[in-house]
Amino acid sequence: MSNLVFGPITSRRFGQSLGIDLSPDTKQCNFDCIYCELKGAKPVDTIQNPPSVKDVVSSVKEALLKYKDVDVITLTANGEPTLYPYMRELVKELDFIKGNSKLLILSNGATVISKDVRDILKEIDIVKLSLDCVSEKCFKKIDRPIKGLYIKEIIDGIKEFRKVYNKELVLEVLVVEGINDKESEFEALRDVMRSIKPDRIDISTVDRPPAYDVKSVSIERLKELASILSSLPISLAYKHDYSETKRDFTKEEIINMLDKRPQSFDDVNISFSEQSKEILIELIDGGILYVKEVAGVNFYKLK
Question: Which residues of 163-187 are buried (b: 16+ CB within 10 A; e: fewer)?
């Protein structure tokens, strides 16, 4: 497979996920979130040198032949996938080949201020949008958007999107210690979430190596904050939510996967076959991978 497709990885909330990276060579995003797994980069409003729809579809077809029982085909990027200029055509093409898998997009939500983007997203089976804060000060501090983006306009865009979208809308709040972990922020979030009426709200904290020096909150604190949204459909994920599917990966596939998304020891134990684990050890012994600890959890990362 090419570097356009990675996994399948075991997602805590979506099952077996085959990822599509629409910006495979470098981070290209209209945010530079302080908790991002990717190295910090200046925000942009377009993806330069995007892969062709033909190349993406070809890579997905190849992967689906090898990997069966994929729950979701996930549109993501080294950054923001909705900046991909050929998204409308790509969604149509993926619909033809996805089979029983659902099409999922992981977006920061900023571009839903555009009607064109809303029209494209409404054709996708599951749309997941980030909404870490609803106050402008907090939004600027945690998500660090490109100049000209304002959280009120983004919230209005999400509300407009919900009016035309009748599939699965998931909102995610990622909590960072000292930034958006205050009761007042969650009370404001609750009021906005009630008006949006998402199908699910995922609440999480920093659990993979971040680009910047930020810290997670405890599970206990996460539960306290989630209780403020208790009248809404909340999801707090834990490790035992994972499925038990084991897969064989080649050396190249493992390197590509870890380049896109670091894998914890638990992730590997749950989804890697014994043969794949042996290759992982070889890569560590060869100095290609290393282990990094984040909040007491060890991750395999690419050097």
Answer: eebeeebbbbbbbbeebbbeeebbe
Give the contacts of 140 (CB within 8 A, at least 6 positions apart). Answer: none
Q: How far is CA 113 from CA 139, 157, 239, in A?
A: 16, 4, 35
Tokens of 243: 């499925």
Whether the per-residue pLDDT at 240 is higher than 80: the answer is no
* CA–CA separation, 77 and 29 (whole Å): 9
The pLDDT tens digits of the residues spanning 34-86 come to: 988 887 788 889 999 999 999 999 999 999 999 888 999 999 878 899 999 99
**291 in Cβ contact with 301 (< 8 Å):** yes
pTM score, two decimals?
Answer: 0.80
* Tokens encoding 196: 């949006």
